Each structure stands twice: as C-alpha cells, then as structure tokens.
Amino acid sequence: MEWTGEGLLIGVRRHGESSVVAEAMVAGRGRHLGLVRGGRSAKLSATLQPGNTVQLVWRARLEDYLGTYTVELLQPRAAAIIADRTRLYLSQVLCDHLRLLPERDPHDLLLHDALALLDGEPDAAALARFELLLLEELGFGLDLSTCAATGTTLDLTHVSPKSGRAVSRAAAEPYRDRLLVLPTFLDAEGPASNADIAAAFRLTGHFLDMHVWHPRQVEPPATREALIAILTR
C-alpha cells in the first residue's frame, strides 16, 4: 500500500531511540499517522514541527497498519508560530482540536479552515466558527436555523444548553438566565464585538465539554483560555 499527499502536521511523538510517529491532516484522508524513521535527527526535527505543511509518502504492507512516512517540507510555519505568542497558542488550539477527529476520516472543510487561520492574521470570529464546524463534523452540530419553541427563523438570540437548538428573543425572555447567548456573526457574516466573541466561545466551549472533552475524559486545549483572553482584549 502506498499513497502521496500534502499534510498539515498536528502532532509528533517519540518512538524508540531515533524515530517519531507523525500525525497529519491530509486532504481526502483525514487524520493520519505514520512512523518516520530517524525523525529525531537534526535533519528532520525542524521539518517535523506542528504547523508545517509537508509532502508525505505513506507506505505499509496492509492498509490498516501504522505504516511509515517519508516527509519533505513544503511550507514552513513553525518558526513564525514560535516567535509570536498569539500564533503559537492558535496553532496549539487548532492542533488539539484536529486531534479529536477519528483517524482516517476525511474532514477537508476543517483542514481548509485550519490552514486559513494559520496563514492569516489571528481571527477570533473565524476560530469560533471553526469550533462550531468541529462540533458539526464530530456529529454534535447545533441547530441554529429555527427557534426550538416557536419554529420561527427570525430574531434568534439564544441557544438551549441542553438541546443545542436556537431560541428566539421572545421565547427566550422568561429563561434568559438559563440560556446561552447566540452571537449573530456565527450564523451570518458580519462584525463581531469582543462581547460577541466571548459569548461565542462560551457557546462552543459548553458543547465541546458536554459532548467531547468530558465524555472522553480529556482536558480542553491548555492554551484555549489564554488565547481567548488575548483575542478579546
């Protein structure tokens, strides 16, 4: 078995004395792991950094084996990421999020959006939308199209913390203290204030914890709160 493709490196861990297991997001193939022999060498260590895009050749005797990677650097980002705390935190959060995906299950929209976030200026609104898309891709998408109580599609301002369904302003009024705020920019392009951004991350964080982090007994990304504080400062 063999294939060739471009991959965004999202994780590297030691394997034996000189090798590493590299984890990459590959278009059409999803989160895919492979052994890189000699990956801890000076020659390869700079290439095998999360955030870099690499050319990968994967080989294995059978499709369900771990297999081996041959890697070639295509787009170095690691140096710029390490030099900028905001970019570093953003990269770490994105990589942590992408590692939540099942192995070898294509999620090309998430890969596209992750690359756009890494290559552009740090964008809080885009990161919040990325987390919303992550929930959908994991099978826990929110229904923000109609009000859970009335069925209306207009003036949707809140979300039920239990069902993940939108609630209109009128229907939400008696229960405002129990509902999560729905910032309008999440469902439509438009400007977002710092308060909107903070509300969006409370919303996505609530459902990521409810459906993903807590059930899997994993901690949220260590730099997520610090990144949110920077982006809403």
Level-2 CATH architecture of the largest domain: Up-down Bundle
- Biggest sheet strand order reads 3-2-1-4-5
Tell the overall outline.
Answer: elongated
Q: Name the poorly predicted regions.
A: none
Radius of gyration: 20 Å
Going by CATH, the homologous superfamily of the largest domain would be Recombination protein O, C-terminal domain
CATH first level of the largest domain: Mainly Alpha
Largest sheet at a glance? 5 strands, antiparallel
Report the CATH topology name of the largest domain. de novo design (two linked rop proteins)
Q: How large a portion of the residues is in β-strands, by DSSP E?
A: 15-25%
Helix content range of the residues, please?
25-40%
Oligomer: single chain
Decide which structural class fits the backbone. alpha+beta
How many DSSP E strands?
Answer: 8
Ends distance: 50 Å
Overall mean pLDDT: 96
Taken together, the total number of domains comes to 2
Give the H and E element order: EEEHEEHHHHEEHEHH
Count of alpha/pi helices: 8
